[in-house]
Specification:
heterodimer, A: nine-stranded antiparallel beta sheet, six-stranded antiparallel beta sheet, 20 helices, 33 strands, 24% strand, B: ten-stranded mixed beta sheet, 11 helices, 12 strands
Chain lengths: 772, 311
């Protein structure tokens, strides 16, 4: 094993925090979070501090207040990083004595955090410490921590408590009905859900002097080990801590399972466990790394995005999804939104299809709740909840106290219906990218049919002979309760059309599946015709003269506001203008029309997309973290490379240059998804087409090359785009040939033995011999 | 990610302690005008809340006997139960400063104007000089505000702390929280944003989030972090954390009116000439409640900067 403590990865693989600023500590701990999709942990200070916010989250472990109508939220689980050190009776703390050196870095390549710290305690003793911790990607129930201590100018007795500390639950533990602590095992059971968590921990000391004292620690809220030994000046001592987590969501006896698993992993030895974790990350990076020859900050930001996207998901668990802050913070309560399908799924579909499948199966598992919501509102089919915890039930509140103290209504839970088409979009993208026919023939088809059925019932034919969808809110949430929102109508029409197309394909290729689905869902020919009529009649017009698509009915009549005249500004436009004015003007939170054109580019001719970009871009206030990434991706596709680069860096800054303090509640995982999309689907020009992968790379001036892998139908395609001379090269790692579409629309078969090269970034493909 | 140079670990501790009120008495300089006398009800309430003796203090050109002093200050012995009335001879500002230093003064409470009232100015000459030179927290009371405060008779039920998101202005939170705790008052924070000005350059400054993906989560999270960052050390957490956008002075006045605040606790960096000075003048001239001014220092810390090594 390479020694991560001593050999940090190269600069572009490292997010580093130097020093210690108590006011920024909560931000730092979120940004440096480690996770494996099952367990996520903020990088809190092991020795504890009032400025530190230890927080561990387990995917799918939600709890709510005793009142059944209260909203369930992701539980803050026990803190497994706790390690308190005492030297000659004096606790080592950042706040006590003098900090001689303090650095932490997130090693993206290895998926771990390293901390180095030199502290002069109030008595003048200087202690050098090195820490390392990770959530194992090889064994998702395993957490690893290493601590190395060296007395620099003294010899004396050192005591270390390596523990799992419990302050579980929301409301300071009031939600727990029981906690048991015994010999390195802590179990916590929650009152309302009945979920039990078990943390089993063990530690070892090396070297171990004869005078070393060791005992199991069993305090009221702590389980772990106590170590005490006479430390000698200049000698280094290493404590390895292993923690295994189990929950009653997976097994019936989590305590027993955690203890048994702990014995298993201990038998393998910590060196091997670290090595396997590192290898698991190496494997993931092989399938997902984006290499940019350009500014290190761009490269680091993209790897930071891929790191957190990879860490957020567990391909082995189809019962959970990814919340708005993944497992890196308590903000958004672990709730899941459309972000997952539109901003995360493209990454998973094209780099981690097993994870994409698991996420879509979560939506399948909640399909009944979506059916119930549609029925409750008087519609047919499936209307997914705007915001869900673990069950698929709607958890969006109807009102909220706003920033200015006023109580304002929240409409998204009631009328942000585009979520159903967003899920359908993700299903379709996954199928195209993965070729997972088994999925589409069962769960995928059911979701597509039920969402299409919803739209057919949601759209109403009116006196003008056309179908309208009224009273919705699109992604642009500055304008609520609008009619014929372009994004909603566009996605709804597309949803119905792909469902009809799938019905035809099923009938032809898998007639048994089609008959089964027809029978179970009650779909008949008459209903399919009604879907077709609704799709054909839905309002989504391109103005012939201006080539514009109106964002929603009446948008063009709103007040024109010159956003430029407000620059530079330090507040979002809705705060600046107030609720009434923002509703009555053209300023957008995020661009519905451009999102539609980015997601479904084949529906529009390029001059139409260009015209709409020119129109809506200067009217977009980017009040959502999801917005600049979309502009970056679409701008890059359209050749607006400088603007696209500005938007890409704006997106990267949301978490990495946090000046708003909101990264303290966790990273903006959807914005990180949009960052990946800006690079791969924007500058890389990747589009998922029916039965083929399309590419049209266009590099910004500051990048000399862009290289990334795509997982396409069980094969790996490596894309290399070069700026000077402009060229694109594709390589297939193995397997059957795949069809790729060049920018001019021509298809070529890419074979494993060769490569495809385009002599210009936008030109036709030429087949070449492999030159690896 | 930004790299932060070493910051003293005790920095947040400073937030808690730097501007705290110590001392046993509240000094109330009066010049005998009706304007200045209007501060007494405010001083009485603060004295009760803080358990401090209220010392009424007059500076004259020549020695004044107690009975004459009472007449000059329009005070009746039965009205001043619990108060101390003192005088000194000399230059008013010098004597006020000396008295403030001598008597373990916790606060100075005085009128914005005295005999030489200048209606076009927010502060009279003596009050302005006191503001610039006295180191203790200074509560300034306009005559109409003092009368209203007395007429309402509810004491301190709501305390408003306006902040600009910088650690230095957040130093006002310590004394405000202490006062709120003692008075059992609710503590409101208003984060005032001048949309045209960049946030304060101090490291640790928190600005309004530019991205609010879901309002029902976004603002709650921002408030939570604001409280954790700036109020984590205090016994009393704020009841409201609001955001106001516009001219800072006008927004503070408007928010105090909207919340029906009984006291504004305002951090001030010691200058009457810059933006902060203009804000202070606006608040003193138009606020509907007394204003406690706390002189704070900009934290002397390295500014957070974007990572540059190797970029």
């Amino acid at each position: 094993m390479s020694e991560p403590l001593l050999t940090p990865s190269p600069n572009s693989w490292v997010v580093e925090i130097d020093g210690f600023d108590p006011l920024l500590e909560r931000v730092v701990e979120s940004v440096l979070a480690v996770s494996n999709g099952f367990v996520g942990t903020q990088t809190a200070l092991p020795e504890g501090s009032r400025f530190s916010n230890p927080a561990t989250f387990l995917a799918g472990v939600f709890e709510g207040p005793a009142d059944p109508s209260g909203v369930r939220e992701l539980v803050t689980a026990p803190n497994w990083l706790a390690a308190r050190i005492t030297v000659e009776g004096e606790r080592l703390r950042l706040e006590s004595g003098e900090v001689l050196n303090h650095r932490r870095w997130l090693d993206l390549k290895r998926g771990l955090v390293v901390r180095t710290w030199r502290q002069r305690d109030p008595s003048g003793r200087v202690t050098r410490l090195r820490y390392m911790h990770a959530a194992s990607l090889a064994d998702r129930d395993l957490l690893l921590q290493r601590l190395e201590l060296t007395p620099e100018n003294y010899s004396g007795r050192v005591e270390v408590l390596t523990t799992v500390d419990a302050e579980p639950g929301i409301g300071g533990g009031a939600l727990t009905q029981g906690m048991a602590v015994a010999d390195g095992l802590m179990t916590v059971t929650f009152r309302r859900s009945g979920t039990t968590l078990a943390f089993a921990c063990a530690s070892s000391l090396d070297p171990r002097a004869p005078e070393t004292q060791q005992s199991a620690l069993t305090a009221e809220n702590q389980a772990g080990q106590y170590w005490s030994w006479p430390a000698i000046l200049g000698e280094s001592y290493q404590i390895e801590k292993l923690v295994v987590v189990s929950t009653s969501l997976q097994v019936s006896s989590p305590g027993q399972v955690a203890e048994r698993r702990l014995e298993e992993v201990r038998a393998r030895g910590s060196a091997l466990l670290w090595r396997e974790h590192e290898q698991a990350w190496s494997d993931r990076w092989h399938k997902s790394d984006i290499a940019v020859h350009g500014p290190v900050a761009d490269q680091r930001a993209l790897r930071f995005a891929v790191y957190h996207l990879t860490a957020a998901v567990n391909p082995n668990d189809p019962t959970v999804s990814v919340g708005a802050r993944a497992l890196t913070g308590e903000s958004y309560r672990g709730h899941v939104f459309w972000d997952t399908e539109i901003f995360l799924l493209p990454f998973y579909c094209l780099t981690y299809p097993e994870a994409a499948r698991a996420l879509l199966l979560f939506r399948y598992r909640t399909l009944d709740a979506a059916r119930a919501k549609a029925q409750r509102l008087g519609y047919r089919g499936a209307l997914y909840a705007w915001e869900v915890a673990d069950t698929g039930e709607e958890v969006t509140p109807n009102e909220v106290v706003a920033f200015d103290g006023e109580i304002v209504p929240i409409w998204t839970g009631r009328i942000a219906h585009h979520i159903s088409a967003d899920v359908a979009y993700a299903v379709w993208q996954y199928w195209q990218a993965s070729g997972d026919d088994a999925f589409i023939r069962s769960q995928g088809a059911e979701m597509l049919f039920e969402t299409a059925r919803f739209w057919a019932s949601r759209a109403t034919r009116e006196a003008d002979g056309r179908f309208h969808i009224r009273d919705v809110v699109g992604p642009d949430e500055y304008h609520e309760r609008v009619d014929d929102d372009a994004y909603t109508n566009g996605l709804a029409r597309w949803n119905i059309q792909v469902a009809l197309s799938l019905a035809t394909e099923l009938a032809e290729r898998w007639p048994d599946d089609w008959r089964r689905l027809q029978a179970s869902l009650g779909i008949d020919r008459a209903e399919l015709k009604s879907w077709s009529r609704a799709a054909d009649g839905l309002v989504l017009d391109v103005d012939r003269g201006s080539r514009l698509v109106e964002q929603f009915a009446g948008y063009h009549g709103l007040e024109e506001i010159n956003l430029q005249s407000y620059e530079p500004r330090v507040v979002p436009m809705d705060v600046l203008l107030g609720r009434e004015r923002i509703r009555g003007c053209k300023v957008l939170k995020q661009p519905d029309v451009l999102m539609l054109m980015y997601m479904l580019p084949d529906l529009f001719e390029e001059p139409v997309i260009q015209a709409n970009y020119d129109y809506y871009d200067p009217r977009t206030g980017h009040g959502s973290s999801l917005s600049p990434g979309v502009h970056a991706a679409l701008g890059a596709r359209l050749g607006r490379l400088d603007a696209a680069m500005t938007y890409l860096r704006q997106t990267a800054a949301i978490d990495l240059d946090d000046r708003m303090g909101n990264a303290a509640g966790g990273v903006h995982i959807a914005a990180l998804g949009s960052l990946w999309q800006a690079a791969v689907m924007g500058f890389g020009g990747v589009q998922v087409r029916e039965h083929a992968l399309a590419l049209r790379p266009r590099l910004p001036g500051s990048w000399r090359s862009l290289c990334f892998p795509i997982q396409w139908r069980g094969r790996t395609i490596r894309v290399l785009a070069l700026a000077d001379p402009p060229a694109t090269e594709l390589y297939l790692d193995g397997g059957d040939p795949v069809l790729v579409t060049d920018p001019a629309g021509g298809e070529q078969a890419l074979e494993a033995s060769g490569s495809i090269r385009s002599s210009t970034l936008g030109g036709r493909w030429e087949i070449r011999e492999a030159a690896r | 990610m930004t790299i932060h140079r070493h910051a003293p670990a005790q920095r947040a501790e400073h937030l808690r302690s730097r501007a705290h009120m110590g001392g046993k008495s509240i000094l109330v300089p009066l010049d005998g005008s009706e304007s200045s006398a209007a501060v007494i009800p405010v001083a009485r309430v603060l004295g009760e809340v803080l358990g401090a003796t209220v010392r009424i203090f007059h500076v004259a050109d020549e020695p004044v006997e107690q009975a004459a002093l009472m007449r000059r200050l329009r005070l009746k012995p039965r009205e001043i139960i619990g108060l101390v009335v003192d005088s000194a001879q000399g230059v008013p500002l010098d004597e006020i400063k000396h008295a403030a230093a001598r008597h373990h003064t916790r606060l100075v409470v005085m009128g914005t104007q005295g005999w030489t009232a200048e209606p076009e100015r927010a502060l009279g000459h003596v009050a302005e000089q006191a503001l610039l030179t006295i180191t203790q927290p200074l509560v300034l009371v306009r005559r109409d505000v003092g009368e209203r405060f007395a007429a309402r008779g509810r004491g301190l039920a709501r305390i408003l702390v306006p902040l600009d998101g910088s650690p230095s202005t957040a130093q006002a939170l310590g004394p405000a929280a202490e006062l709120a705790c003692a008075a059992d008052a609710s503590l409101d924070i208003v984060h005032v944003v001048d949309a045209r000005r960049p946030p304060a350059p101090e490291a640790g400054t928190m600005s309004v989030p530019m991205y609010v993906d879901q309002p029902h989560h976004g603002w709650e999270n921002w408030s939570r972090e604001f409280i954790s960052r700036f109020c984590g050390c205090f016994h009393r957490e704020p009841g409201n954390v609001l955001v106001a956008v516009g001219d800072p002075g006008a927004e503070i006045v408007r928010t105090a009116q909207q919340l029906d605040s009984d006291l504004i606790v305002l951090a001030w960096k010691g200058s009457l000439g810059d933006t902060h000075g203009a804000t202070l003048r606006t608040v003193l001239g138009a606020a509907s409640c007394p204003v406690m001014v706390l002189r704070v220092n900009e934290t002397k810390r390295a500014q957070a900067r974007p990572r540059s090594s190797g970029d």
